[in-house]
Amino acid sequence: MVAGVLACASLNARAASPRDGAHDFDFARGVWHTHATQVLDPFDGGTHTVTMDGTKTARPVWNGRAWLEEIEADGPNGHWEGATLFVYNAKAGQWSQTYIDSDSGEMEAPTIGGFKDGRGEFFGTTVHKGRTVLVRGVWSDITANAHRFEISYSRDGGRTWATAFKAYLTRLK
Known about the structure:
By secondary structure, this protein is mostly beta strands. Helices cover 9% and strands 57% of the residues. It starts with a helix and ends with a strand.
């Protein structure tokens, strides 16, 4: 009886173990051209936007269990720089993403998530115009030489989402 209970517990533990996503961001290695659009009024029609072009450079840290991404872009409001740190939590089978703005030096609250079927989804909260909202980051259309990243906000608990930022990336090297 004890052996049967132990065998069952072992099977349940294996079934509950998260998939190993430690290399989910391997596709992002290298230097990319980024064409990014920031939506200034995501909850008010999304008609006011700022478009920027630049480069994103991503390199692995800790054998790919973390990634450092540096972004530089130019647009009508001048030069913008930022960095993003991605860290993999093997016990949870999830990634965290923390953005750092170069102008303010402030770190945003991390978003947490993972990849399934070639699509990454990360969730958290952020402040938009003085109000805390849900935030979702999505990686999609991932190929060897291109991918897409989009940030959306929700102020109704995730029932609806409004695009706040989108970037189309193509590999330079």
